[in-house]
Structure prediction request, 305 residues.
Amino acid sequence: MTWRTRSSLAWLREQPGVRENEPLASRTSFGIGGPADFFLELARADAIERTIDGCKQRGIPYLLLGAGTNLLIADRGVDGLVVRVVNRDHEIEGTRVRAGAGLKMMRLARIVADANLRGFEFAIGVPGTVGGAVYQDAGCWGKEIREVLLEVEGYLPGKGRQKWSPGVLNLGYRTSALREGALTGALVISATVQLERGDGEAAKQLMAKLTRERNETQPIKTKNCGSVFKNPPGDSAGRLVQAAGLKGAREGAAVVSTVHGNFIVNEGGATAADVRRLIERVMVEVKRRFGLQIEPEVEMVGRWK
Ligand SMILES: Cc1cc2nc3c(=O)[nH]c(=O)nc-3n(C[C@H](O)[C@H](O)[C@H](O)COP(=O)(O)OP(=O)(O)OC[C@H]3O[C@@H](n4cnc5c(N)ncnc54)[C@H](O)[C@@H]3O)c2cc1C
Prediction:
């Protein structure tokens, strides 16, 4: 609360396009969560940089928002400023592709297939943005973004623009130095991936097949956040949840999917507290039954206390 000085509030209110007490639920795939104190949607990297620098200087907390597909936002909303990152440019040079952080991975998968490039088909399973994918090394069907990533352009408030190699980003299964490490609070501006020349039609056919298979095995058309839990080494969280008899378990309007054990579905009107209680119940029950501590993949943000 200490950041709420008269001058910080005045500075926030001066930002072009800023909205106060802005609902966030509709900006997440869960459809859950309270409002942002302040909200901005920015498409230019330099504007985002100036804004987060300004926050840092004034001690105003900020949250970078991509497509909101891996977030559980608290019912009481988010303190400070939420910046939705929507720079969606891209450039293709031979087999190298640079994409703005706000571009959706699925859209980029189609763009590169149209350009007869292969190696990015896995991204058709990731509904988030390029920035969100770098943040936690998103991947699907056994392939992760780090396997094609050449370099990331980013911005560390107070330190300026930087180029980060995959090594510096310390990418690992659903983690990075951005999520937990030296780069927390940094902005991904764009990512450059190295792909291969190939048959774009074959890439599209493969993506269509993978999407069909996924639609049959996951509750894709519901309000959810994808996998709720990380898979423990050598096992699958979905299998453990199912084996613990938790498919269909419910807290309020939040339900463990009967289609896939690693999905929690907002049936309509679920609160963040419902989902959190269900997550904690599943973790306790899996630990009790199998002695395994599973960890959430979904990130819980905002005012929980
Ligand atoms: C139906 C469904 C299926 C899914 N399947 C998969 C899957 O197969 N594999 C997988 O890995 N994930 C999957 N997900 C989860 C999700 O799509 C990924 O985690 C994705 O990478 C999140 O990106 P986002 O843009 O939605 O990020 P958000 O949810 O908006 O944000 C997540 C985190 O990323 C940070 N962030 C976002 N943009 C930036 C940026 N530009 N710079 C710095 N930080 C940033 C945010 O601050 C936040 O901490 C699925 C989700 C759904 C709803």
Q: What stands out?
A: Residues 237-301 form a domain with the Uridine Diphospho-n-acetylenolpyruvylglucosamine Reductase; domain 1 fold (CATH 3.90.78.10). The two ends are 13 Å apart (CA to CA). Residues 287 and 293 are 5 Å apart (CA to CA).
